[in-house]
Specification:
single chain; 477 residues; alpha/beta; UDP-N-acetylmuramoyl-L-alanine:D-glutamate ligase; Protein-Tyrosine Phosphatase, Chain A; 2 domains; six-stranded mixed β-sheet; 19 strands; 38% helix; globular; ATP-binding; EC 6.3.5.13; ATP binding
């Protein structure tokens, strides 16, 4: 194994490799002792010492490397699959913290590597940022690649969408099994001339329509440029389509979700004769479940184990994550591009309750400097149901821009509040909540974890107070 080569990169473990590995492990231990996640910095230092360390480490995974990439849903998909793998009793390396750039992936592999250089597990599950895929695949070849979807996202960082799609497609070798979203033509095209392809898709959802005014990334056939003809839209460019020019069309999915419904915060669906459910809101999350299910079947995991893994899944940080505050339940979910935000709006509108919302917009590097994408979000849907909106609190560095966008979308100015303090924004929710309201907190990336810490601390305080009261009552009894 020490003499293996991959795509011309020398995989012999040199002195540089061992220095990089041990430096990364020492840093990891130090950061974990300090209460930090301990992935990105060790990976950064190790990669600086040995730029090929990710390739060296990857050679130990004899059961394969699963890559999850795409614009939206890759974190949820990876965590759904991880829960299935745990239900199946499998050990695996995983960048669960969502550090999906080269440094974070390297750090996760270092954590899973012994001082001797051997891996703790023989399987790796790695979420990979779509712009990182070329660098990732230059050092290793995934045995299975899940591709969720492609949408415009941070143009100042990724560039045009066509460029991102082309880079990902050109990076994947013929030996990799592709798990593809059949309903997204930008993803489905990857299966052309690729023999090892598995498609997943949706028959229809209660929100599927024969016509759509939504922004679509793929109006034109990726093969010949003819306008695609849709017989059904699920959301964005996802649906059932065909090209009248060259014949390109939505392939028949091997894994097809049918009888799709939403019941008490659960998505319920059937694949073949087996029923599945996940504790997530929003029909867009159905695709994440299908991607994980498809990969699990390819790994020969039984349906009853897959069903258990999906059913017992707990949403990860900021992905329709629920917090139980003294005044009631609040849902926190990341927003980062027009299509994803539109689906969150659709989910909120689908809740038959008055709405009180916090929207946090930053324009730091991780969020995307260009916030013009807010004008591509269909906030007019919120304006059209203004009677159900109790309040929208705008926070973050671009709170004023967000409030202006909502004003032009038709949300009453008297319902708009600008509050730059994150704690103040959450206070505004807690102090003004009316009976029967639904709370949603929608931040961009750099606001996600600060808001989550505030919500988590108040949730814990609620539990601690309840515990003290219960203990006091028991003592008095």
């Amino acid at each position: 194994m020490d003499e293996t080569r991959i795509e011309g990169v020398n995989m012999k473990r040199t002195v540089r490799f061992w220095i990089a590995l041990w430096a990364g492990k020492i840093l990891t231990i130090g950061l974990l002792m300090a209460g930090k996640k301990g992935t990105t910095l060790p990976g950064k230092v190790a990669s600086w010492i040995d730029p090929e360390i990710m390739g060296h480490l990857s050679m130990a995974y004899n059961d394969g490397i699963i890559m999850v990439t795409g614009t939206n849903g890759k974190t949820t998909t990876a965590n759904l699959l991880a829960n299935i793998l745990r239900a199946a009793g499998k050990d695996f390396a995983f960048n669960q913290a969502g550090a999906n750039l080269v440094t974070g992936i390297t750090g996760a592999l270092i954590q899973n590597t012994h001082w001797s250089g051997s891996a703790r597990a023989s399987l790796a599950l790695l979420e990979v940022d779509e712009a990182t895929v070329p660098k990732f695949c230059k050092q290793l070849s995934p045995s299975l690649a899940i591709i969720t979807n492609f949408f415009r996202d941070q143009l100042d960082r990724y560039g045009e969408l066509d460029t991102t799609v082309r880079m990902v497609r050109e990076s994947l070798g013929d030996a990799t099994v592709l798990v593809l979203n059949a309903d997204d033509p930008l993803v489905a095209q990857f299966g052309q001339n690729h023999s090892r392809t598995i498609y997943y898709g949706v028959e229809r959802t209660p929100e599927s329509r024969v016509e759509s005014q939504e922004t679509r990334e793929a109006r034109f056939c990726p093969s010949c440029g003819t306008v695609l003809d849709y017989s059904l839209f699920h959301y964005g460019q996802l649906g059932i389509y065909q090209c009248t020019g060259c014949g390109f069309h939505r392939s028949e999915p091997k894994i097809l979700a049918q009888n799709v419904t939403s019941e008490e915060g659960m998505l319920v669906f059937r694949v073949d004769k087996t029923g599945f459910s996940i504790a997530l809101q929003g029909y867009y999350n159905l695709y994440n479940a299908l991607a994980a299910l498809t990969a699990a079947r390819e790994l020969e995991i039984p349906d009853k184990v897959i069903e258990k893994g999906l059913r017992e899944f707990v949403p990860q940080a900021g992905r329709m994550e629920r917090f139980y505050l003294p005044q009631g339940e609040a849902t926190l979910t990341l927003v980062k591009n027009p299509t994803g935000f539109n689906q969150v709006i659709q989910t909120m509108i689908g809740v038959a309750k008055p709405l009180r919302i916090v929207i946090g917009i930053n324009d730091l590097a991780a969020d995307g400097r260009d916030i013009s994408w807010l004008w591509d979000v269909d906030f007019e849907r919120l304006g059209s149901c203004d009677d159900r909106i109790e309040q929208v609190i705008c926070t973050g560095l671009r709170a004023e821009d967000m409030a202006l966008r909502l004003k032009y979308a038709g949300v009453a100015v008297k319902k708009l509040v600008i509050e730059h303090s994150l704690a103040g924004a959450i206070n505004g929710l807690q102090e003004n909540r009316g009976e029967g309201e639904a709370w949603f907190i929608l931040p961009t990336y750099t606001l996600l974890f600060p808001l989550r810490e505030i919500l988590d601390s108040r949730q814990k305080s609620t539990r601690e107070l309840a515990g003290r009261k219960e203990h006091g009552e028991e003592a008095r009894a």
